[in-house]
Hints:
Layout: H1 2-13, H2 16-27, H3 31-36, E1 39-42, E2 46-49, H4 60-70, H5 73-89, H6 92-98, H7 103-136, H8 142-145, H9 150-173, H10 176-200, H11 203-210, H12 214-221, H13 226-233, H14 248-271
Antiparallel strand pairs: 1-2
Helix pairs in contact: 1-7, 2-5, 4-7, 4-9, 5-9, 5-10, 7-9, 7-14, 9-10, 9-12, 9-14, 10-11, 12-14
Amino acid sequence: MLRLLSLELQKLLLNRTSKILIFVSFILPFFVILLSSLRINVFGFFTLELGELGVFNFPIIWHLTTFFASQFKFFFAIVVVSMIGNEYSNKTIKQNLIDGLSKKEFILSKFYTIVFFSLVSTILIGLISLCIGLYYSSYTEASIIFREVEFLLAYFVKLVGFFSLCLFLAMLVKRSAFALAFLFITFISEWLIFLLVMWQTSTETAWKVIEVLPIQSMWELINQPFQRIAMTKFPDKGELIYDYAVHGYEFAIVIGWTALFIFLSYRLLKKRDL
């Protein structure tokens, strides 16, 4: 595993564009810190400081930071599709196989890289969340601080799943730009399926269907936190209540899609004449 990961990292770090995108991917989550220090002047009457509103208290901080950080995953998605696009355009994929790398090892090297960068990103977000929380939170009990850290695991699984989808699309079309276009088409297709099912059956059934589709199932791992924040400010508003927790079946769905995308990527490479 380390040999395959090292091989892939060398390729990425030798590419100027990949290095820049990887750097940006790791720097952007730190903007959460800027968010915590944001002050909004409301027409000169008073200053609204997010850090003082309690939104960075434990345990809600884990939910908030992982949700915002996951919105920056598109930058590393470009790196993932570029890994495959460059292999085909530079003919390095054929050279790797000639040099003794099996097709299975080729796909695994990409997957290990995805897991590695997802893990590093998760650790960074975990440390950022912990630091912001310790600074702003009024709760210092360990039982509260580490409650809901499953959002970090959800963040990790979400990244691995999304990047595995990007890997599969890149293997399917061989070109970075086309792979990103297909990613957008996949997103649109899921909502077209939602509308079709809703038209044929009901809205409730349509939601059940779309929640098991790739992109939406990854979104469902970490639901938006805004409604939850509103619930803390207006606890008497029953209509604000919603299910924001991370569930085991949601993990299972995304992990299932991840395994399928990696398997299909391997099958495509195995059957393809290089």
